[in-house]
C-alpha cells in the first residue's frame, strides 16, 4: 500500500474552497485512488511552517501512484492549483496492509 501525502500553503488570495473541491473530485475521475482524506491542521504544536491543508491519498501499489501522477485529470489539477500555492510538500510512504 502506498500513501501519498500532500501539504499545501496557499497564496492569500487563492480560491481555497474551489481548489480543495477540485482535489477531492479526483477519486471520481481516477479509479486507482483507493482512499482520499483532506483537512486542516488541528495541531497545538504550531509546527506547520505555513502549510494549511493536508491531503492523504492511498494506492494499492507504487505502479498505481505512478499512473496517477501522469493521469490527465491529475495533471490538469496540478496546473490549476500551482498558481495559488506559496509552497507544496509531497511525501510518499510505503506501508504494510
From TrEMBL:
Organism: Leeia aquatica
Name of the protein in its database record: Dabb family protein
Domain Stress-response A/B barrel: 2-93
Phylogenetic placement of the source organism: Bacteria, Pseudomonadati, Pseudomonadota, Betaproteobacteria, Neisseriales
InterPro entries linked to this entry: Dabb, Dimeric_a/b-barrel, HS1/DABB1-like
Signal peptide coordinates: none
Residue ranges of coiled coil: none
Quaternary structure, from the entry: Homodimer.
SMART domains on file: Dabb
